[in-house]
Design goal:
Metallo-beta-lactamase, Chain A; globular; hydrolase; hydrolase activity
Amino acid sequence: MLFRQLFDVETSTYTYLIADLGTKTAILVDPVLEQVERDRQLLQELGLTLKYCLETHIHADHITGTAKLREITGCLGIVPENAQAGCADRFMKDGEVIELGSVKVEAIATLGHTDSHNAYLVNGTHLLTGDSLFIRGCGRTDFQSGNAGMMYDAVTQKLFTLPDETLVYPGHDYRGHTVSTIGEEKQCNPRFAGGNREEFIQLMANLNLPNPKKIMEAVPANQRCGNVAA
């Protein structure tokens, strides 16, 4: 398996390139519109055919590159079950698996950041957590029908039941972290370690964060799979 972590500096967003080297087919998870040329060039350099663009959720902080990549490569755009994106080629529900040769990508429904959100477990070892779990943090729950209680349940009852050595790759990082493990986050993540569900809900209700800069343009564009024009 080929696995690459790519970064967009403006929005602190990670995009993941996953490929099967036998079939030379690839998946991009959470591509960013402004980085489409970077992603296209990397696919070309590695001789990979893009089969799918996979979203963890409908993003509020950046516009997805899926529409542009679909236009360039003919790939399919996939979003979580119940996402408000009628343009998607496919919706992926909890437990569904996509296979590319020897690579298996399993969806794990992790609601809470938004009302439709998937984490993706790759070959049982690499967990792409989107905005449900960050390294020493988690995504916010105060808009897009977010729900702190549902996030706590998804992280503690689903993600934290995976083996401790499972590698955690988040959708964003703002402090320079690139990878963690489930065992490390269970022990060190200040949002979840040592507290209970009610304390987590109270903590999330009092973050008082400003809205993402691109929320007004990003959400409607992403409901059109990244098409900027209405």
